[in-house]
Amino acid sequence: VHFVESGGGLVKPGGSLRLSCAASGFAFSRYDMRWHRQAPGKGREMVATITSAGGDTWYVDSVKGRFTISTDNAKNTVYLQMNNLKPEDTAVYYCSAAGIIYWGQGTQVTVSS
């Protein structure tokens, strides 16, 4: 199993970023996928999920209406579109597959003026 997250960076409040996570080593299209984040000094938090079957999504309250999770099964990739970013979104972002205990290196998102 391998996850490679990318797309992070430094952005001003109100800005946008699109994170990507390329997955390999398992049947991507059969798994619910998730995005998590870990802010400095805090535990890892799940922020968005998407089901494999129907594409149903879930978001933590703090990102509802701003973040959108999606997948491209042809590319074995899960995305996180993040709009109207806030300083409290600053964290390392990770993807995962439900039931698979493995973490990639993550991608750093910093929201600061």
Structural commentary:
The mean pLDDT is 96. By secondary structure, the protein is mainly beta. β5 and β6 form a beta hairpin. A 6-stranded mixed beta sheet has the order 2-10-9-4-5-6, with no helix packed on it. It is built from no helices and 10 strands.
Number of separate strands: 10
Strand order of the largest sheet: 2-10-9-4-5-6
The helical percent reads: under 10%
Distance between the termini: 37 Å
Order of helices and strands: EEEEEEEEEE
**Main beta sheet:** 6 strands, mixed
Arithmetic mean pLDDT:
96
Low confidence ranges: none
Number of helices: 0
* Spatial shape: globular
As a percent range, the share of strand residues is over 45%
Radius of gyration: 13 Å
**Helix/sheet category:** mainly beta
